[in-house]
Automatic annotation (TrEMBL):
This is GTP cyclohydrolase-2. It comes from the Bacteria. It catalyses: GTP + 4 H2O = 2,5-diamino-6-hydroxy-4-(5-phosphoribosylamino)-pyrimidine + formate + 2 phosphate + 3 H(+). Zn(2+) binds at C70, C81, C83. Binds 1 zinc ion per subunit. Coiled coil: none annotated. Catalyzes the conversion of GTP to 2,5-diamino-6-ribosylamino-4(3H)-pyrimidinone 5'-phosphate (DARP), formate and pyrophosphate. The keyword Metal-binding applies.
């Protein structure tokens, strides 16, 4: 069953949030049928996508993922990171529950440094630097992602609180600081591989990430 459009979520409707809803339509996928909402950040040109399944308005503990765009992982199947597998698992979890939200956050490529610099950082990692050192070697921040737009989108969707599918403590703190309570963490168990082990271990040691061992 397609998710019915919420008539109160009108395209172009003024909002007090930092995001504007620009378009919405039904999106059938291999996981199930979602409503896709495209939001524009009011003071920039980033277009974020909210994939919504079921009725999430005025609901608590909505199964939610804030997914940072990663072309190499999400589209090309790269094993240098675990993004593509986390995206796949998050959409499966939402489909299994029949209800939830996945925010696909554009402009977050390479923790905010963009595609070209991410590939430059990969080249430095081939010379022995880790994912954080490589960003810093390029004169770039180790993580410049912000989640205020994500919180704004969740508020426009009238989500009251979330169960967050994430290993990243910064996302929990940031959502809470922007007024979206996180009631629970839902782990995404991704297999550790030779190609991504150093990357995952670095995120654990330098950003305090959780890691959910695959059963
Ligand atoms: Zn990635």
């Amino acid at each position: 069953m397609p998710t019915p459009h919420d008539p109160s979520l009108a395209v172009g409707q003024p909002t007090r949030e930092c995001v504007v809803l620009d378009a919405q339509a039904t999106l059938p996928t291999r996981y199930g049928t979602f409503t896709a909402y495209v939001f524009r950040v009011a003071d920039g040109d980033a277009e974020h996508v909210a994939l919504v399944m079921g009725d999430v308005a005025n609901k608590q503990s909505v199964l939610t993922r804030l997914h940072s765009e990663c072309l190499t992982g999400d589209v090309l199947g790269s094993y240098r990171c675990d993004c593509g597998e986390q995206l796949d698992l998050a959409l499966r979890y939402i489909a299994a529950e029949g209800c939830g939200v996945l925010l696909y956050l554009r402009g977050h490529e390479g923790r905010g440094i963009g595609l070209t610099n991410k590939i430059r950082a990969y080249a430095l990692q081939e010379q022995g630097r880790d994912t954080v050192e490589a960003n810093l070697d390029l004169g770039l921040p180790d993580d410049s992602r912000e989640y205020d737009s994500a919180a704004g989108i969740l508020r426009v969707l009238k989500v009251t609180s979330v169960r967050l599918m994430s290993n990243n403590p910064k996302k929990f703190d940031s959502l809470a600081n922007h007024g979206i309570p996180v009631c629970e963490r839902v782990g995404l168990a991704i297999p550790m591989r030779e190609e991504n082990e150093r990357y995952i271990r670095t995120k654990q040691s330098k950003f305090g990430h959780y890691f959910d061992e695959n059963e």
